[in-house]
Write a structure and sequence with these properties.
By secondary structure, the chain is α+β, with helices and mostly antiparallel strands. It contains four helices and six strands. It has one domain: 3-Layer(aba) Sandwich (Aminopeptidase). Helices cover about 30% and strands about 40% of the residues. Strand 2 and strand 3 form a beta hairpin. The termini are far apart. It binds coenzyme A. The site of coenzyme A has 18 residues, from strand 3, helix 3, strand 4 and helix 4.
Length: about 130
């Protein structure tokens, strides 16, 4: 958990300039955290908050040196399985617009208009599980 939080801090706060108080929103204790681990090192992470039959997916971060190797894609696949096992049938997220293709390729569809959150352009996306 501490390695996942440290990775999020590096990626969101230092790399992207998201304020710490927004990154740490107080909901980590109630969430499922997934990690991508290679040789004992956490290289990727994401977070699932389950609300009724919907999973709120967020905090997807991959170590810069490990990007474009499919780790985020594998975390999204693992998130689908976790969500399904937890009884959820829908996942929702706020995608940074530059990463939209990552989510489109994994079955997410855009919903609504582009908006700014934590100073970064986002778009709402959702995916239904069969
Ligand atoms: C976005 C992020 C999680 C992607 O992780 P990753 O492990 O590199 O992603 P994958 O290797 O699974 O990428 C799969 C596909 O997503 C798309 N994608 C990934 N990173 C992208 C980028 N920087 N720009 C545009 N498309 C991108 C591409 O279509 C990619 O396929 P390709 O490599 O064959 O072109 C990673 O860049 C990251 O941590 N960024 C900083 C934090 C962040 O923006 N989180 C997402 C919030 S919505």
């Amino acid at each position: 958990m501490s390695a996942a939080l440290a990775l999020r801090d590096r990626v969101f706060c230092r790399e992207q300039g998201v304020p710490k108080r927004e990154e740490l929103d107080g909901r980590d204790g109630e969430a499922i955290h997934l990690v991508a681990v290679e040789q004992g090192v956490v290289l990727g992470t994401c977070r699932l908050l389950i609300v009724d039959k919907t999973v709120q997916f967020s905090r997807l971060a991959v170590e810069p040196a490990a990007r474009r190797r499919g780790l985020a894609t594998r975390l999204l696949i693992a998130a689908d399985a976790e969500a399904f096992d937890a009884g959820a049938r829908r996942l929702v997220l706020h995608a940074q617009t530059y990463a939209r293709d990552l989510y489109l390729a994994n079955g997410y569809e855009p919903r609504g208009h582009v908006f700014v959150e934590a100073g970064i352009e986002h778009i709402a996306m959702e995916k239904r599980l069969a």
